[in-house]
Every structure is written in structure tokens, then in C-alpha cells.
Amino acid sequence: MTKGSAEGLATRQQGTRLVPVMKLPKIVTLALLTGPLAVAPLATAQSTYAPPVADAQAMELFKLGNERRTFTKSLGSKYETGRAEIFIHAPVSTVKAAVTDYANYAKVIPKFQKAKVLKKSAAATDVYLLIPILKGAASMWSVQHFEAPVTNGKLETVLGKSLQGNVDALNTKWTYRAVDATHTVLSAEIYVEPKLPVPSGTISREAQRAAAEAVISVRAHAENASKKVAGVP
């Protein structure tokens, strides 16, 4: 074997015969050895995360992976309130920013077809909202009076009520809390009382559907914003 033909090759003893073995360049060898190990910690961290066992609500929503829909009914109300809650992979500050970004509600929450801030102060914000219902066959509009967030322990709540509109009542309630530094539980409640007679089941389901679309949209917005901050594509 000449020097030229032996370049890049080594030999090893196999019985009495010399067998040529290809030598990989150091940079390729290093990539093969370290490449999988370099990405393993991130993948492992994502796949092994779980909320604290003591936080039953967060654990249930995390395992569910989607929103959980329920109904509630207040004393004296004509209809049930639609409610939805969801687990979000984003800090509570990011979720709060999305919930209170009233001027961009139409972008953050597409269910709110139109949104315009009419009046704003430290104590409250008045927002015009247009919300399609009945699969687009009709629309609700309301000037919502959103109060400033109120903190009670770990929970923070934002209440909204209708000042005027084509409904007798449109009440909204956001509640969010931190699970840990990078995860949040969010819930939305929507109560609608139309001016015209509508079957209670129909209007309650519409309210529940709107609440579900609201938490799903906020989750998508908050998680995308969190990824951008972390530099994750």
C-alpha cells in the first residue's frame, strides 16, 4: 500500500491478515459522539415535566392536554354560565398580558371579531366587542366594562360586564394563577342573557363555546410569546 492509498486509512490485525479500516475525521467523530447528547437534555426536560402532585387542578388539566368545559349557574340567573379552563406552558405574567390586551382582542382571541378600546383608566377599561354566535348566523355586540385585575392569594381575577349592547347581559370573568415560574392555569366564564327568547340550552352552549375558544386562543398566544422570549423557534 502506497502512502497515497494509505492516507485516511488505518489497519488492524485480524488473524494473520491486515484489514484496512477507515479513519473518520475528528470533527465527524465528535459530532457523532456528542450530537444526540447535545439535544437530549432539552427533549428530556420537556417530556418529563409534570405539575406539582399537590396541585390537583393543574395536574388534571395538564394530563387532559385540552380545555375542560363546564357550566355553572348563579342564584337568580336565567341561564347557565359557560366555563372553560386550560393549562398553559407560559408564565402567568405572559398570560395576564394577553388577557388584558383589550385593544388586540380581535388578534389574540379571534372569536371576538371586533374589539375597540373606548375608554381607559387605572381602574377600568371600556371595550366595544362584536362576537358572532350560532355559527355566524347572528352576532352579539357589547360595550364591556373590564375592571382592573384583583388579586386574592395566588389567584388574579378580571371581571367584565355589559354597559350597553344588543343583549340584556354579557358578563365575563377571567381567572389565572401561576402553577410555577413557567406554567399557568387559566379559566374563562361567559354569561349571556339575550333580549329575545332563546332556548336556555342553546344560549348556554354558545357561552361555553365562546369561553373555550377564548382560553384556547390565549394559550396559543401566550405560549408563542413565551417561545419568542426564550428564543425557541
Key features of this structure:
233 residues, disordered N terminus, 6 helices, globular, nine-stranded antiparallel β-sheet, two-stranded antiparallel sheet, Alpha-D-Glucose-1,6-Bisphosphate, Chain A, domain 4, alpha+beta
Structural notes for this entry:
- The protein is an alpha+beta fold and 233 residues long.
- The protein folds into two domains: 3-48, no CATH class; 56-230, START domain (Alpha-D-Glucose-1,6-Bisphosphate, Chain A, domain 4), CATH 3.30.530.20.
- Helix content is 34%, strand content 39%.
- The chain has helices at 3-6, 26-48, 56-64, 92-99, 105-108, 200-230; strands spanning 9-14, 17-22, 68-72, 81-88, 114-120, 124-133, 138-147, 150-152, 155-165, 167-180, 183-194.
- Strands 3, 4, 5, 6, 7, 8, 9, 10 and 11 form a nine-stranded antiparallel β-sheet that branches. It has a two-stranded antiparallel sheet with strand order 1-2.
- Mean pLDDT is 83; it is low at 2-22 and 24-45.
Q: Strand content of the residues, in percent?
A: 35-45%
* Domains, number: 2
H and E order: HEEHHEEHHEEEEEEEH
Distance between the termini: 51 Å
General form: globular
The oligomeric state is single chain
Text of the CATH class of the largest domain: Alpha Beta
Q: Could you tell me the number of beta strands? A: 11
Q: What does the radius of gyration come to?
A: 28 Å
Count of helix runs: 6
Query: How is the main sheet built?
Result: 9 strands, antiparallel
CATH topological fold name of the largest domain: Alpha-D-Glucose-1,6-Bisphosphate, Chain A, domain 4
Uncertain runs with pLDDT below 50, 5 residues or more? Answer: 2-22, 24-45
Q: Mean pLDDT score, rounded? A: 83
CATH superfamily caption of the largest domain: START domain
Coarse structural class:
alpha+beta
Share of helix, binned: 25-40%
Can you name the CATH architecture of the largest domain?
Answer: 2-Layer Sandwich
